[in-house]
Amino acid sequence: RQRSRVFAKMTRKKVKAFDSRMMDMLFPAGKDRNWSIRPTPKPDTVLTPVAQQMIVQRQQVLFQQRVQAMVQESGQPPERVTQQLQLGGFVPELPQEEIDQVMLAAAKAGCDRMEVMIADQLAELKYKPVCKRVVHSGHLYGTGIIKGPLSQRKPRPTWQLLGNKWQMVMQPKLMPFLEFVPLWSWYPDPSARELEQLGFCFQRHVLLKSQVGNLVNRPGFEGDLIRQYLLEFPDGDAQLQNWETRLDADDERNDSQEERTARRYEVLEYWGVLDDAYLRELGFDQDPMNPRWFSCWVLGDFVIRAGERPIEGLDHPYNLYYHDKDETSIWGDGVPLIMRDDQQALNAVVRGMLDNVGTTVGPQWDVNTDLLRPGEKSREIYPNRVWYRRGDSRQPAIRAVEVASRLSEFLGLKKCFEDQIHENTVPAYMQGGTAGGAGRTASGLSMLMGSANLDIKEQVMSLDLGITR
Fold first, then answer.
1. Which helix (H) or strand (E) holds 149?
2. What's 349-398 look like in SS3?
3. Is 155 helix (H, G, I), strand (E, B) or coil?
4. How many CB atoms within 10 Å of residue 426?
5. According to the model, what pLDDT value does residue 203 have?
6. Whole-structure pTM value
7. Handedness of CA 219, 220, 226, 227 (dihedral sign)
8. Per-residue pLDDT tens digits for 429-454
9. How many angstroms separate the CA atoms of 126 and 104, rounded?
10. Chain centroid to CA 5: how far?
11. Residues 440, 462: Cα–Cα separation, whole Å
12. For position 392, what pLDDT does the model report?
């Protein structure tokens, strides 16, 4: 007889709780955003056209004030005073404090316009669904990865007047680009413990044949090599990784390996510093004091794209969100790892409780087969059955042995481990559960909620510093 193998799904509940709380705080209902653009108290910028226009307007006001003062002193008409000042080359000088105020106002105006533009771009990029996947990956595995911002040219609809009619035409437009990167598809430098220490990284893409063909239209890709490779391998070259094979073995609903890899290709994207000898072959001079980062794409044994980093100062486009950073590696710890011991203990309690309940449904039967009539089936026990026996003995042929129930003890242990899980993750009252003690009053519950939100705010800060900024 097999024992119970039930899994109490507290881990899933806590991961979902972190997801919902984070998304509610990051993307609240309404027009509020979880980011903004503001200038520093004293922006160090050049005079923009907006700032210059504001300074000229202020100088005109001071010029008119000087004209009115001279008219009152001399009694001359304003036109003559204005002419005299203009001939004399009078230009009002603004104090530095007023110039700083003008610069700050111009910077604020620029930030407001840029904020509107970024909000429009993020809406088109579906930034919220992307962040939701990043946040879920961070809570489930400990690390969420987002790639970007990069740029790409995409056809966009525009209206043009052609003849006497307005018609919609598709024109390429430079647009920002963001994407969620699954944890299993990113292979960083194993010696790096922080993102700033990353020397190189790979991203594995499994693309359809049409997606590989679309790479020909992107700048910098070798179209001839891609066409040749697709002709050589018309059915694809993708192979399942070890972790994919293990997942398929655990889930009977998955398709076979041949079906999952049919007409799919494995493309590797590399970001990092290239070898000096290889750079010399490509015609680049490598400066040992200032290594140059490159972005390369590999299809099979062919390098289908090789070029320097597209944005100066951006070594790689990957940004990370951690639920709980691990100091020994570049990865983080997720909710399942943090509560693993408590989850395993809870599982053991629940399984033991179910096994105990199963054995106490009815008594255990001690059967003396020597006293049963030949041919009697001692394994078939059901209510009101009549047993026929032969011979005589001091011990009965059939004896019922009652098994003691330990249900109350198991329920106590179950509540103990559940409370420990709530204490180490998200409190139960934040998920609709009851709160004792101070939580029985509205003010006390508000105090408990505010205290519990401190841990969530730390997660929000982690995403702001790692992703949003």
1. strand 143-162
2. HHHHHHHHHHHCCCCEEEECHHHECCCCCCCCCCCCCCCCECCCCCCCCE
3. strand
4. 22
5. 96
6. 0.78
7. positive
8. 666 666 666 556 667 666 666 666 77
9. 32
10. 32
11. 32
12. 62
